[in-house]
């Protein structure tokens, strides 16, 4: 797993520096001076948590500059009852280990660079994606068979990503991603290991394009909405 993580980070760095440094900086600088357009995408991806398969679903939204640079924020959650963890419980002095369902949700902040964009193809790299998450566990207490939820614990993640998509329609496409998630911090009470490759291959619904299709002149009907 260590070698896979290093290989991926090197690949991200190579893509970002494949162009000359000056050309890359010029492209980003020019793009950031252009009028931003709102984007909103439904995002799903898979990974592993302590060896268990884990599926995440969420929304990523933000500002797109010149169809080259995207500054975004995401809201993600782990599918329920997919990861079972072993936790230690103190039940009135009776200490034991038991299985518990993991609940995990997080916010992310990301910067994305689109290095190829010729319709219907698009490829991008997300060198920066920082996540702040909340983790708790649900288990059945042995003494009274009550379902108990532990207190929320904090997790901080770093998650670079490579993405590609093929547009079938403007609002629907095929998407794929490959990344690696690294745990920067987790509370002492969190028993799981979140370090993992991440990957996806699925249909992508571009919510902003759906909005534009239904409301081409905006909700008021007076002006169009900037979408990417």
Task: Give me a quick take on this structure.
This protein is of the alpha+beta class and 228 residues long.
Oligomer: single chain
In DSSP terms, counting alpha (H) and pi (I) runs of 4 or more, how many helices?
Answer: 3
**pLDDT average, as an integer?**
87
Q: H/E order of the elements?
A: HHEEEEEEEEEEEH
Q: How many domain regions?
A: 1
CATH architecture designation: Beta Barrel
Global morphology: elongated
Query: For the report, how would you describe the main beta sheet?
Result: 11 strands, antiparallel
The structure class reads alpha+beta
Strand tally: 11
Radius of gyration: 21 Å
Q: DSSP strand (E) fraction?
A: over 45%
- CATH top level is Mainly Beta
What is the helical fraction, as a range of percent? 10-25%
Alpha-carbon distance between the termini?
A: 36 Å
Low-confidence stretches: 222-227
CATH third-tier fold name: Porin
Task: Give a verbal description of the structure.
The chain has helices spanning 2-17, 21-32, 207-214, and strands spanning 36-49, 52-65, 69-78, 84-91, 94-118, 121-140, 147-149, 153-158, 161-169, 172-186, 196-205. The chain is α+β, with helices and mostly antiparallel strands. The protein has one domain: Porin (Beta Barrel), CATH 2.40.160. Strand 6 (121-140) and strand 7 form a beta hairpin. The protein is elongated, with a radius of gyration of 21 Å. The two termini are 36 Å apart.
Topology:
Elements (H helix, E strand, L loop, with lengths): L1 H16 L3 H12 L3 E14 L2 E14 L3 E10 L5 E8 L2 E25 L2 E20 L6 E3 L3 E6 L2 E9 L2 E15 L9 E10 L1 H8 L14
Antiparallel strand pairs: 1-2, 2-3, 3-5, 4-5, 5-6, 6-7, 6-8, 6-9, 8-10, 9-10, 10-11
């Amino acid at each position: 797993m260590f070698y896979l993580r290093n290989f991926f980070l090197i690949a991200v760095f190579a893509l970002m520096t494949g162009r000359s440094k000056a050309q890359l900086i010029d492209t980003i600088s020019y793009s950031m001076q252009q009028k931003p357009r709102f984007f909103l995408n439904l995002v799903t991806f898979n990974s592993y948590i302590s060896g268990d398969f884990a599926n995440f679903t969420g929304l990523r939204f933000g500002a797109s500059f010149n169809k080259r640079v995207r500054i975004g924020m995401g809201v993600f959650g782990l599918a329920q009852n997919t990861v079972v963890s072993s936790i230690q419980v103190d039940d009135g002095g009776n200490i034991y280990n038991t299985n518990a369902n993991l609940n995990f949700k997080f916010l992310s902040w990301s910067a994305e660079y689109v290095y190829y964009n010729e319709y219907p193809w698009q490829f991008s790299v997300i060198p920066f994606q920082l996540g702040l998450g909340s983790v708790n566990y649900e288990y059945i207490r042995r003494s009274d068979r009550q379902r108990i939820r532990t207190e929320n614990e904090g997790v901080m993640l770093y998650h670079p990503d490579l993405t590609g998509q093929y547009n079938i329609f403007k609002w629907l496409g095929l998407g794929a991603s490959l990344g690696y998630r690294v745990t920067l911090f987790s509370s002492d009470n969190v028993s799981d290991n979140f370090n993992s490759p991440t990957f996806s291959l699925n249909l992508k619904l571009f919510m902003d394009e759906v909005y534009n299709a239904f409301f081409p002149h905006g909700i008021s009907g007076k002006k169009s909405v900037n979408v990417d």
